[in-house]
Structure formats: structure tokens, C-alpha cells
Design goal:
Helix content: 40-55%
Number of strands: 0
Strand content: under 5%
Largest sheet: none
Number of helices: 4
Oligomer: single chain
Number of domains: 1
Radius of gyration: 19 Å
Order of helices and strands: HHHH
Structural class: mainly alpha
Shape: elongated
Distance between the termini: 46 Å
Length: 117
Amino acid sequence: MTFDGFADPHLAAGDPVAFGRSIAAKARRDYEGILRSFFPEGRRPTAADFDDRSIPFAAASLEVSLAVGATAKAWLYAWHRAHGDLEGAPLGAGGKANPFEPAGGTAAPEAAKETGP
């Protein structure tokens, strides 16, 4: 399992739709290769088709990590948008306490949409 942290540029910009689209694009990247490897055309897969040392297994493992990481980011973003308490949460390296705070900006969810004086 790998995890690249909670920070995401789309979520930091307050755009969960773009976040979802980027995750979907990443998930589609290896889909066909994994499918062909584990479900060969014309026959049912057997135990012999499964090899945890194979490249398809590694790719599938990374896809699981992508799904788990995206879920963690989405849940934390929802918690942040609901004004949940992030104080003391171990959210990332570099001492940045809030992964949804834009660079040089504020952590308030509404601030990203405010315009004018």
C-alpha cells in the first residue's frame, strides 16, 4: 500500500469534481492491461493465472492504493468542508496542518469562492 498524502491541487482549489475526474483518469490508465492479465479471453481464470510477483499484480496493487488514498482524501475534504476539527491531525510533511489550504491563502472553505473587497 502506498499513500502520497492528503494534499491534492483540485481539492485545495475547492474543486471536488476535477478531483474525481483526475482519479477516474488515473484508474482507467491500467484497466485494460489488468483485465486481460487476470481474465484471459476465451476461458475462465485459474489459480495458475494469478502470480503475486507479476507486473499485472503490481499494477492492480497500485490501483488499490489509488482507490484507498482517493477515499481518504475525499473523506477528509468532506470533513474540512463541514468545518470539522483538523487541529492536531497528522496530515502531512513540512508542518502544513491543512492540505486544503491554497499556497499563501486561507484554510476557510468559503475563502476560495469569495471575490471583491
